[in-house]
Amino acid sequence: MSTCNSWRSTVSRFLLLVCAGCGDSTGPMSPPPIPSAADLRFKGVGTRAPQHVSQLGNLIVPLVLVHHNLLGTQLDIEPCPPPSPAQSNCGWELALFSESIGTPDVNTVYNATGSLPRLDSDLSDLQHGSLIAAGADVTSVITALFIDAPSHIYATSGYQSSDVHDFSLVFGSVSPGALQSAASLAGAQGRVITALDFNGGNVVYLSYGWARDLSTVYDAKVVTAPFSNVASTATSLASEGYIITAVGGNLTDGYLFVGTRVRGQIAPRPLLIATDSIPLPASSVIQNTLSVAGYTIVGTILGRHPADSRLFSIYIGEK
Questions:
Q1: Per-residue pLDDT, 122
Q2: Were 317 and a residue from 79, 103, 113, 290 both cysteine, which residue would form a disulfide, CB within 3.0 to 4.6 Å?
């Protein structure tokens, strides 16, 4: 087992299902709206057919992996082991699914080559379209951002589309206390925050507009939670009608959630969480629990139980 995966060596493979809004709606409230499958900002929530995991793997710095026309999970949030003198030891668990992403000419992209000192300039190039104009192989929508300051690296996952010009990036860096205002402003302008993480005491966030829909405005809600409250926080956002469009953070500073919903659409959304409780057979794949039921995995967090040293992952599925 490689050093970058040593954190996972103590993870028990257990399963507990927590379901919110999974049954039929009660009362007069209408079902929640389903985003367009072409709107990559929402990661395919509500548009995915049931499917099985076809590949499990690990993304290890410094590699770039592009999986053409396959739906893949976002970068999971897990602590990086201390870097060695020559390199980072970060690594992420990935799952690829058996069916295509559902939208023509869309790829899932994982990029683990980012140099943290270049983060602002890299994002500025994307925001101003200079990389697109130069014909570079760029990601249309970055759906997860991971920053590891000790290793001086950043990594991203996202979707690449032939309609790269349809999605316009605006990024920013604000104090944690100012993130709600930034998210509300983005929503009012029709943009969706899709990725974020802590960096040097601030929060770097990425938001995207979509050229095919310039009229819809959104409500956005920001919540920070310790690992012990991750499941309840995700459940609460879904119960208020939010799609969880961005997850970031760490065990020390807490985990950031951004929920986005079409303004005024408060109908609860189905959400399913897989984590530890009931032992699974060694051959079982936790991601299948969500994917075969048609849930999109919008975030995965590896954390430590507050009462002991046990590590386990929380998988958040929404549709």
A1: 95
A2: 290
